[in-house]
Each structure stands twice: as structure tokens, then as C-alpha cells.
Amino acid sequence: MIGIIDYGMGNIFSLTGALKRLEADYIFSDSTEELAKCDALILPGVGAFTDAIANLRERKLDVFINDWASQQKPLLGICLGMQLLFTESCEYGQSTGLNLIPGSVIEIPDIVKVPHMGWNYITHKNKHPYLEQMEEGYVYFVHSFYAKTPEENIIASTQYGVEIPAIVGKGSVLGMQFHPEKSSETGKKILQELLKSWRVI
């Protein structure tokens, strides 16, 4: 069972649709008791970092997520959910994140059009046990900020003015800056491999 963390940020319609197509069971909940029964968690998110981290803290979900990760249980952050995994963000001033992956979330430089919206090709950089056979290809991005993190945490990246970490990982924690659920066949294959490695499908 997958637990999708409900903290009031983001539309999960596409994500739940993708999970249904892959025949994965899931719940959408803000109850730590319910989420604790799951095999893996997904932290989605659309919006501003400051609002998102405040919502998590208000619901005490930040403590729950950190405890979950400390037990080496599988966790995936998507888009804003990925950015929340990092140490800090400069979006609307300096904010601290969940600090599960070291690094900072900074603004994409204005040498390119911001926000970064559309399809970009991602290439594999470092292996991760959850994504041993990671599919390369075009995936769908919508974001104005990106993560700066040590190279060893970058599983895949794309180029958009600068190198954008597309998939990051440290231990049992993974993040995807793009939306795998909106990324056609490439996104489906990446999500499918991840769910298989989690043994939830």
C-alpha cells in the first residue's frame, strides 16, 4: 500500500490515475496513524515552498516524515514535494526544509524562460537501488526553482540553462522534479520500476 501525504498542497488527480493504471493500491491521508501502516509514501506538491513546509509542520507531518525516513522506509517527493526534501529554500525568503537530502533550492537563472514548463530529456547520472534500470527520455517539468546538491545525490538530470537535477536520492528517499504521472511512456516506466522495487505492485 502506498500512502499519499495530504497536507493541503497540490492536485493529485493525475498521480492517483497513474497509480490506478499501474494497479497500485494507495490511500490519500493526513493521518499519521493511517500513513504509518503503508509500505511507501509519496509527498506530492504544487505551490510555494514556504506554504508547504508550514502546512507540514502545522499537521506534525514533518516529524512523521523524518521519523519514517530515519527507518529507511521508501519515500518519494514529486515536484514541490521533492524540493521539500532538501535542507533549505530561498523561495520567498530563506526557509528550512525536511533536510533529508543535503542541498539548497534556488531560482532558475533568467538566462532561460522561467518557469521551466514543458518536456526535457533526462539522462542517467548515478545508480540507485530503486532505479537500477532507469529509463532515459523526455519528461514533463513545471517549476521555477531547482535543487543544488552534491553530485552523488543526483540520479538523473536535464539541461535548462543550468544542470537541473531531475531525480535525486539519498538512502530510501527519492525526489523527482518532473511529474512522472504526466510524462507519458518514460514517466510510466520510471514510476513502474520504482513501485516494483518498493514491492507494491
Q: How would the blueprint of this fold be written?
A:
Blueprint: E1 2-5, H1 13-21, E2 26-29, H2 32-35, E3 40-43, H3 49-58, H4 61-70, E4 75-78, H5 80-83, E5 86-89, E6 95-96, E7 101-107, E8 116-124, E9 137-143, E10 145-148, E11 154-160, E12 162-170, E13 173-176, H6 184-198
Parallel strand pairs: 1-2, 1-3, 3-4, 4-13, 5-7
Antiparallel strand pairs: 5-6, 7-10, 8-9, 8-11, 11-12, 12-13
In brief, what are we looking at here?
The chain contains six helices and 13 strands. It is of the alpha/beta class. It has a nine-stranded mixed beta sheet with strand order 2-1-3-4-13-12-11-8-9, sandwiched between helices.
**CATH homologous superfamily descriptor:** Class I glutamine amidotransferase (GATase) domain
Q: Output the CATH topology.
A: Rossmann fold
Assigned CATH architecture: 3-Layer(aba) Sandwich
Supply Rg. 15 Å
Mean pLDDT: 97
The coarse silhouette is globular
Helix content: 25-40%
Q: What is the H-and-E element order?
A: EHEHEHHEHEEEEEEEEEH
Number of domains: 1
Q: Name the structural class.
A: alpha/beta
Strand content: 25-35%
What is the overall number of helices?
Answer: 6
Which regions are unreliable across 5 or more consecutive residues at pLDDT < 50?
none
Within the largest sheet, what's the order of strands? 2-1-3-4-13-12-11-8-9
Q: How many strand units?
A: 13
Class in CATH?
Answer: Alpha Beta
Distance between the termini: 9 Å
Biggest pleated sheet: 9 strands, mixed
